[in-house]
Design goal:
The protein is an all-alpha fold. 59% of the residues lie in helices and 0% in strands. The two termini are 34 Å apart.
Length: 460
């Protein structure tokens, strides 16, 4: 428990002097691997060779905060494009960039809700019509002939009448007139149909999707700033939208899912799943169990970036004891999948799995017993150490996991089968000799239950 408390203070790392957990970026992998890669890139390309970057004045957000929010809320293509491009510049900052200040969300009131509205607008039209349960009355934009998305201007260039939204981009005005004559009864109530004013053609839908992806990328950039962590981690609508995108990763845009996943991983050290049952206003009705199921679903994904991020997300969430009741019911599936990730050749997948298992092994005795009984768990942890993994911190965590398993008396009989392997690593690898010496001491020096009983009876 002491290690767990230290890890909670240090972002999942062991020891009080360890640095906090690094923010997530692409490609996915261990935090130590990311740091090593960043150090290597700095050695090749120092900060003096970063080249020119587009300058944004530090007071730009203060002077245009209302305009940015109103542009996002307008729903007009030109205004949305300007606002999203502006926020992309304000939210992006290169590593150790001293020429540009960070833009905290608190500087722009209402910005987070406006960005979420852009994503929600796409989510509303992302599902096919047959999957939509009920129609909604379209009230916004009643006086707007066009919104700017899709081919609306082209359709109006030859006819001033508003084209029927359900025709699509390939339908001509003459076809629309013919359809209007043959189906007179349909035109009377089309305003109340789900194929209403804003159900646009394929090109317009693609543009709406691009806006949602851009908004998700801005949220991801904002999650890297310490000033925004608390605001985003305590914003229920933000978390509901992110988890809904993760939940629909099979059908949703891949970049949108990746941005949502990276954002949640960045916020994970401050995330309390109980927020989904709090008194804060809810928009999507995500529950704690549904959020945990979404994580488990993407943990089983075949996309390496996704299951690596899901493993790291689980490792960060379990540090908070308040999240245990929602994650531990899935413990058997979690252990099985993480052990499967250890068998992959990708070093970042192994690092993510070891990091998650490292925190899970510190939760309680039941977790250590279940992990030790998982098939191939010990073998693959030893393989990570013996290969060895390119990041020494990953090997150290794997050895610490084995030490935690050896501390439970119920695991000793099973771990004694690996006594020769432990002794081999003890004498061959000086980095982890202390850890494996303690493991062997736990397995061989402490008396078993039978010996302790004999001492009590015979006075041995």
């Amino acid at each position: 428990m002491q290690k767990r408390e230290q890890g909670k203070q240090g972002g999942g790392a062991s020891g009080g002097s360890a640095p906090p957990a690094a923010k997530r970026g692409r490609p996915f992998g261990s935090t130590a691997a990311a740091a090593a890669a960043a150090a290597a890139s700095d050695a090749v390309a120092p900060s003096t060779l970063l080249g020119p970057s587009l300058q944004v004045h530090s007071t730009f957000a203060d002077q245009n905060n209302k305009r940015i929010v109103l542009a996002l809320q307008s729903g007009l293509k030109s205004e949305l494009t300007w606002a999203l491009n502006t926020l992309t510049l304000l939210s992006f900052k290169e590593k150790d960039e001293v020429r540009k200040d960070a833009t905290p969300l608190a500087k722009i009131p209402g910005l987070l809700d406006a960005l979420l509205q852009v994503i929600d607008d796409w989510r509303d039209i992302a599902l096919p019509k047959e999957l939509v349960k009920r129609a909604r009355v379209r009230l916004l934009g009643a006086n707007s002939v066009v919104t700017g998305f899709g081919n609306e201007y082209k359709a109006l260039s030859s006819n001033d009448a508003v084209p029927h939204p359900s025709l699509g981009s390939g339908s001509s005005i003459t076809e629309a007139s013919a359809q209007k004559i043959t189906t007179k009864t349909q035109s009377s109530d089309w305003w109340f149909d789900e194929d209403g004013l804003f159900n646009m053609d394929d090109e317009g839908r693609a543009e709406k999707q691009q806006c949602a992806v851009a908004a998700s990328n801005i949220l991801r950039n904002f999650s890297f700033m310490p000033e925004n962590e608390v605001i985003m981690a305590q914003h229920r609508h933000c978390l509901e939208t992110l988890f809904q995108c993760i939940e629909d990763h099979v059908t949703e845009d891949e970049e949108l899912v990746t941005n949502a996943l990276e954002t949640v991983v960045n916020l994970a050290p401050l995330l309390d799943l109980r927020i989904f049952s709090s008194s804060k206003p809810s928009y999507i009705k995500i529950t704690e169990k549904r959020a945990a199921q979404a994580i488990m679903s993407i943990l089983g994904s075949a996309v390496k970036a996704w299951h690596c991020a899901a493993a790291e997300l689980l490792g960060r969430l379990i540090i908070n004891p308040d999240n245990e009741p929602f994650l531990l019911p899935f413990a058997p599936q979690i252990y099985k999948r993480l052990v499967d990730l250890l068998s992959l050749q990708a070093s970042d997948a192994q690092a993510a799995a070891v990091g998650a298992l490292y925190n899970l092994a510190e939760v309680n005795m039941d977790c250590r017993l279940k992990l030790a009984s998982e098939r191939w768990a010990v073998d693959r942890l030893l393989k990570v150490i013996k290969m060895p993994h390119p990041v020494p911190e990953v090997c150290r965590k794997a050895a610490t996991i084995l030490e935690s398993l050896a501390s439970e008396p119920q695991n000793r009989a099973m771990l004694l089968a690996y006594e020769n392997t432990f002794a081999e690593i003890l004498f061959s690898d000086g980095k982890y000799s202390d850890t494996f010496a303690r493991i062997l001491y736990e397995l061989t020096s402490r008396p078993s239950n039978k010996v302790a009983t004999a001492r009590g009876i015979w006075g041995m």
